[in-house]
Amino acid sequence: MGKNLLVAQSGGPSAAINATLAGVIAAAREEEGIGRIYGGIHGVEGIQAGRLADLTDFQELEKLKATPAMALGSCRCKLPPADQRDAAIYQNLRRVFREYDIGYFLYIGGNDSMDTVCKLAHHFAGEPNAPVFMGVPKTIDNDLPLTDHTPGYGSAAKYLAITMNEIIQDTAIYAVPAVTIVEIMGRNAGWLTLAAGLPRFTGGTKPDIIALPEVPFDEEDFLRQVRDTLRHSPNVVAAVSEGIRDRNGDYVGSSAKSGAVDTFGHAYLSGVGKYLEGLVKREIGCKVRSIELNLMQRCSAHLASLADIEEAFAIGRAGVAAAVRGETGRMVAVERLADSPYAVRLRTVAIEEVANLEQLVPEKWRNLENHKVHREICDYILPLIQGEVPQFRNEFGLNDYISFLN
Amino acid sequence: MGKNLLVAQSGGPSAAINATLAGVIAAAREEEGIGRIYGGIHGVEGIQAGRLADLTDFQELEKLKATPAMALGSCRCKLPPADQRDAAIYQNLRRVFREYDIGYFLYIGGNDSMDTVCKLAHHFAGEPNAPVFMGVPKTIDNDLPLTDHTPGYGSAAKYLAITMNEIIQDTAIYAVPAVTIVEIMGRNAGWLTLAAGLPRFTGGTKPDIIALPEVPFDEEDFLRQVRDTLRHSPNVVAAVSEGIRDRNGDYVGSSAKSGAVDTFGHAYLSGVGKYLEGLVKREIGCKVRSIELNLMQRCSAHLASLADIEEAFAIGRAGVAAAVRGETGRMVAVERLADSPYAVRLRTVAIEEVANLEQLVPEKWRNLENHKVHREICDYILPLIQGEVPQFRNEFGLNDYISFLN
Q1: Size of interface A-B (CB pairs under 8 A)
Q2: CB A382 to CB B397 under 8 A?
Q3: Which pTM was predicted?
Q4: Which of chain B's residues have a Cβ under 8 Å away from the Cβ of A163?
Q5: Range with the lowest mean pLDDT among A139-153, A260-274, A351-365, B123-137?
Q6: Per the residue annotation, which of B141, B143, B208, B308 is the catalytic one?
């Protein structure tokens, strides 16, 4: 019997991260070189405290693939620098790795989680019997470098495109002038906001305004666009990233905010939609509403994309294959071969080239008045949002989910 | 050839109101006594200005059934008292009814729209060649009297139950104490908030707190419930109606609000979730987030209930049948015959007994700690949320909708 495999999840949830976990379990079970399969509860934080669940005999992989959020739980834990040999958390992890005879450690997460994989790989480098460390990507934000896109983005993009289409329909019914501001996740990268623009990019006229965090936001420009649109349409719909900043780099409306930061030092954002709602009410005076799509854009598994879920599963499998080959300190990445028919190849990249770095919307896709840009964005996003995921409805008509948390 | 039929939509949208329109068109087409079928654009407001679309040859009824919001547009227009013989809007409507030879006027809407039907029936009573006036119910709020429920409620309830289930899953992943407050539509009636409670009523433990507008809200009680829950669970989820009031009948957090009212004199509400978020942050100090489900709870046609859509269609048909029988000043209503297997009978009720009145959650269902109440609520709501509605996705994977607005 070979060494055992440990898999855990970290960072923010998505509709696809459990599909990646299912792929890891499926592949690990087929590998003769792997003994038992353990799931770490609440990421490295729970693992260092010895919280492991034995997943070796877990069978409900299809239901797990249709479960939103994270069946193993998550954490937001920033490890100390890799060269702090005496840090308690590294000592604790070393003890757990030994106790459970872990030969393979797969960590599913986004930018911050790849920082964890990077530090673990460096800290344990050269230690006899240390596991290999493999990063497996996920983030709805789609902001990891060196991968065409990230699992979870396709499902969030599908939720945003279809929900935006419904909101456009809902707000079109009255003849009185009204402005609707839809606030979308994405601290620095506008990938999700681009997805909310799909009803327009595919030939419609709305959303009228699309504001990416990559493009400096000017309040006067925004008000002018609203006024211009109101001249020919009673309803204005704006898709606005939560992370839009002014020319000085300050978050729009930040003067009205607390300045609180999360454990990674990121500014805690909320309410740019509410801020712009107030601005329009004050400066234009028409009916105005803001909508924050909030958690729904990352947890709406009922609207997940089959393409995303199946790819997330395949990425989990690829992570196991790379780990068994002995790769360490690397992350699985997606290389796109073609848009139509959509084809990709999975490979691995050095974790140092990913951790803590962000992939923004490229310069050439920021001019959203350009129809060629619309076509290119559609070519990029549309293959990722196709297909419906089978739902596991219980006797009441609600969804049954998998959870390994007690 | 008989007289012509005019149908219009009014008030707030839902995922089912276009299915009722489809039912009206389907039934009117089969009636030999009906000539052409006209759709009034933007309710009585557009009709009085002569904005009618000819729907006689419209064929895409199945796609119309899957379209959210209102394909004919809406208005929020309160008619003057019925005895104001010289009011311009009545004169204008009379002219349009004559010009288009309207024998049947069906108005699809909620409480306020039934006020319109009531006034029209009284105003035109006894006039030769005046149309019959038939109210056809819709409102996600489920607050019309004399009907077991209203079309649109089932789809909104399904959205709320499934989305709440996903939010519960999303918020369960971290081990750090956190409170999530979900704000749900319903000015005076708690029917939608009850639907958000279905994950608990069907055997789960969350949402931990369910606050109906029918039950006076006490901030100290709420904070105590949050603290109690945090003792055994790191995550608290609260489903809170936008319309909760304190013991004096004042909206919770209203002191922080503008006091603005809509055209019907209803207080304009927003932000009880944000208010409670601030309260928890200040008094308990843990991580707290509020989520406003906003328009999505009424326009999420992608998650519509087939039971609701088919019933809404049947109610449209029943409205035509009653109008052809010569009934006027009445509304189609649903009488429930059995929960399981679910069975209903459609009938009509006098519009005076419906207009401007509200059906609240009954007293006996307000004690949500009682498991017998959970069972009764499930028996009531669950039949209304079953089944999936076929989606009309275009070449891009987005939904194609019908609109008669140009």
Answers
A1: 158
A2: yes
A3: 0.95
A4: 296, 300
A5: A260-274
A6: B141
CB contact under 8 A, B175 and A302: no
Q: State whether B397 and A403 contact (CB < 8 Å).
A: no
Residue matched to tokens 């400096």: A216
How large is the ipTM?
0.95
Q: Which of A65, A168, A173 should be substituted to probe chain B, the one whose Cβ sees the most B Cβ atoms within 10 Å? A: A173
Q: How many C-beta neighbours within 10 Å does residue A352 have?
A: 15
Torsion sign over Cα A100, A104, A108, A113: positive
- Of the residues A86, A101, A115, A141, only one is catalytic, namely A141
Query: Is the CB of B399 less than 8 angstroms away from the CB of A303?
Result: no
Q: What is the pLDDT of residues B32-54, one digit of tens each?
A: 999 999 999 999 999 999 999 99
Q: Please check whether residue A37 is in contact with residue A56, taking contact to mean a CB–CB distance below 8 angstroms.
A: yes
Token pair of B69 as six digits: 């919001």
**Chain A residue nearest residue B76, CA to CA:** A174
The DSSP secondary-structure symbol of A331 reads E
B141 among known catalytic residues: yes
> Are B158 and A397 a contacting pair at CB < 8 A?
yes
